[in-house]
Amino acid sequence: SKYFIAKWLAKVAVDPDDRIYLMLDTLPTDVGIRKHIEPFELSCKSGNILNVRRFFVNRILDPNQGFLLYRGFMKTPLYIVIGADNWGPVEVLLSLGAHPDGVPTCRPCDRPLWRAVEKNNLDIFVLLLLWGR
Hints:
Layout lengths: L1 H12 L5 H8 L3 H17 L2 H9 L9 E3 L3 E3 L1 H7 L3 H9 L16 H7 L3 H10 L2
Antiparallel strand pairs: 1-2
Helix pairs in contact: 1-2, 5-6, 6-8, 7-8
């Protein structure tokens, strides 16, 4: 929560080793993530691989960070990419370290493999299975 992060920032601000402070300060928060989801999803739908990669290289999104979206269900960037029905961005996310099974707190129907079955996309389904070995 925002309060917890603020409390941690206050605690480590007096620490002589400021790496912890800098790392905590740059973590994307849930609200910050949600404002980037729509442009991210549009980049995925258009197949713009460079833009998709920029979201992660510039640390706007984390490939394995879950976030609440649509009625409070936990989603991951990989779930969003699979929903865009474009094979290229899925491969990019997997190569950047996205876990093919999503985050452990996801419900089974919010997992990437389930999403590929739901979208009836055999290519993405096979790709996830190969990366998940």
